[in-house]
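Input.
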Amino acid sequence: MPRMLDVSDEVRAEIGDEEADRLLVGPDAPGSYDCTSCRTPGDPENDPTSTVLFVGEETAVLAFAHATCIPSQVVSVSEEQLQGAVRSITGDGPAPAGPAAPSDSPQNVPGGQAVLGITSGLVLIGGELHPALVVEPTAPIARPGTTGPGDDFLPLLIEQGFIPVTDTAQLPSPLGGWSVLLAAGQLHAVLQPGADGGGQVAWWQAHQALSVTDGWRAAVNKTQRVLIYAAPVGSIGQQPREDLLRDALDKAAADGKLVAASMPLAGTPGA
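Output.
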């Protein structure tokens, strides 16, 4: 029975035709696997399967995913992230457990270097739960070339295509070229278009891959999109429950301090 395995042209270019052919018809083809996105079992003899090549500075790791989760692609990550993903995939060493907590890490954001906090949660819209990430800096973000004291975080994001939120009961608009990197069932980065039409680069990147709840992962596996909400420092705070997080989002929207966008998992169409 032929294997239902997809090796994209970009993956083939990285691993070579000989290795690609061994994956498709030879002894190197995978048996059963845990999907690198949703972490549920897959079998290329029964499930359409994608080959996903994670490439770091010195290491490359080939993983497998349900084709319904993410397409076959090459994903560039930091060497530290890649080693963390390897430990998660192989089970060599502890992986973070439980829901993703707010995580602050220096990130390149529009306006320069800043520290962003990011929290995962489920947002109920139209009777359906949607996976969401809420981003809030720990300090005001100045426009490049200025020294403040103003906070240009939201205007800079609006220039990138984020839309001001006036009603959290409405789904945010899709943002082309942006995506969310979920690897080995953990959150690694929010990616934005590179300069001059280049490949995607990290807008936010986890210092250590963040665990998400099974419910969050199941929701993103269903919708294939993540809602990103962003607010200036002091607008949301670290809310211990999703109902309190929703209340904080509602208040920020009412105060005109919330922007949002929806984006796919890395490698899927961004329109």
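Residues 242-254 form the longest helix (13 residues).
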